């Protein structure tokens, strides 16, 4: 040791130095133990962090997949709703058409029924006429009917001949009137000249 101010510094004792050295070495060991513990903690924390980061990325991936799946489900749900709406509209149109066809079928049946009733009525009338004609033109009454018809025929022929004679007379009178007019017109023309 050097002397600075001229006083002598007492030499530390070896025991004190040894004790200090032991304390320092013990402190060093404690610090090394603490460093080792801290390194161990740090390593385990880093492993845990790496595990958590892996889990986080896996969870993020799962979240993205679930989100995509959810979007797909939403899209499918919307499509299903649209399909359902289309089906409902189509069903409504089909029901309306069906109702219209039912009404047309009912109208057609009513028309057929009316036609059938009209036909049946006409058929009954024809049957009645046939019965009436049959009762009139029985073989027993046929000679009387023929005689009546011949009488009516001869009366009609007489009436026709009478009308023809009247018509012939009227034609002659008409010819006479025309001739007299022509003679009167010719005489008037001659007088004027």
Automatic annotation (TrEMBL):
Entry GO CC: synaptonemal complex
| Annotated signal peptide | none
Q: Which Pfam families match?
A: SYCE1
Q: Enumerate the Gene Ontology biological process terms.
A: synaptonemal complex assembly
The UniProt keyword set, sorted, is: Coiled coil, Meiosis
Keyword Coiled coil listed? The answer is yes
Coiled-coil regions listed in the entry = 14-111, 157-187
Superkingdom of the source species:
Eukaryota
Keyword Cytoplasm listed? The answer is no
As for family, the record states: Belongs to the SYCE family.
Q: Which PANTHER family match?
A: SYNAPTONEMAL COMPLEX CENTRAL ELEMENT PROTEIN 1-LIKE
What this protein is called in its record is Putative synaptonemal complex central element protein 1-like
Species this chain originates from: Scophthalmus maximus (Turbot)
Name the lineage.
Eukaryota, Metazoa, Chordata, Craniata, Vertebrata
């Amino acid at each position: 040791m050097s002397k600075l101010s001229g006083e002598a510094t007492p030499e530390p004792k070896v025991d004190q130095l040894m004790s200090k050295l032991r304390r320092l070495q013990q402190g060093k060991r404690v610090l090394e133990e603490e460093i080792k513990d801290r390194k161990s903690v740090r390593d385990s924390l880093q492993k845990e962090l790496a595990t958590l980061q892996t889990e986080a990325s896996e969870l993020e991936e799962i979240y993205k997949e679930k989100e995509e799946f959810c979007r797909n489900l939403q899209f499918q749900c919307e499509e299903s709703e649209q399909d359902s709406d289309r089906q409902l509209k189509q069903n409504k149109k089909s029901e309306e058409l069906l109702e219209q066809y039912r009404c047309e079928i009912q109208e057609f049946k009513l028309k057929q029924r009316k036609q059938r009733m009209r036909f049946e009525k006409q058929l009954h009338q024809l049957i009645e006429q046939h019965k009436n004609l049959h009762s009139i033109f029985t073989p027993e009454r046929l000679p009387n009917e023929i005689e009546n018809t011949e009488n009516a025929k001869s009366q009609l022929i007489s009436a026709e001949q009478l009308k023809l004679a009247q018509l012939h007379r009227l034609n002659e009178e008409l010819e006479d009137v025309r001739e007299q007019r022509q003679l009167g017109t010719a005489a008037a023309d001659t007088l004027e000249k």
